[in-house]
Structure formats: structure tokens, C-alpha cells
Amino acid sequence: MGHACDSGTKCLFLLKPWRETSGMIEFLINNPFIYESNDEWCGAIFFRDSKAIAEDEALRLCKTYHIPGMKEIVFHSLRGPEG
Question: Residue 37, Cα to own-chain centre: how many angstroms?
């Protein structure tokens, strides 16, 4: 059940929101992504806030979402960098 990509399969999933809606923001916040970058697996986690997350929260998220073979998990603010 579900979908898996193995070494013999190339998968592409592109999101291009037409406009920023509350539904689109909630989807990104509640659905971490795994993507391929330079033949390595990476994760992306999205946040509503522009503030840096606390170290203990970052460690908890990495423990929850990291899978063997993943190079890194990148945290993204949907509001851009803190100003």
C-alpha cells in the first residue's frame, strides 16, 4: 500500500500553488516531503512562523521524520526569514 520509489524508478511530484490559501498552507505544514537532490534523499518540513525553531523541537522532528539513507532535513518558513 502507498507509493515507493526504488533505484529503478524516477518519480516527480511538482506543487505549484496558484495562490496562497489557508488550505495550501495547512497542506504544506501538515505534510513533510522527501525529495531527491543530487542523487541524495532529503526531507523538507514547512512552518508557518518565521522564527527559528528551538533546538529540542528540531531534534524531535528529525527523530520523527528521518529515515535511513536520508542526507538531511531542511526546515522552511512560509513567511520567509525573520526580519
Answer: 13
Determine the residue type at 42: C
> From CA 49, how far away is CA 80, in angstroms rounded?
8
- The owner of cell 496562497 is 20
Q: Which residues of 22-39 are buried (b: 16+ CB within 10 A; e: fewer)?
A: eeeeeebeeeebeeeeee
pLDDT value at residue 44: 92
Where are the strands (E) in the chain, listed by range?
33-37, 40-47, 70-77
Cell numbers representing residue 54 in the block: 528551538
* pLDDT one-digit tens code per residue, 11-39: 666 677 788 888 888 988 999 988 888 88
Whole-angstrom distance, CA of residue 83 vs CA of residue 80:
9
Helices (H), the chain: 22-30, 55-65
Residue 82 φ/ψ region, left for φ over 0, alpha for ψ in the -120 to 50 degree band, beta for the rest:
beta
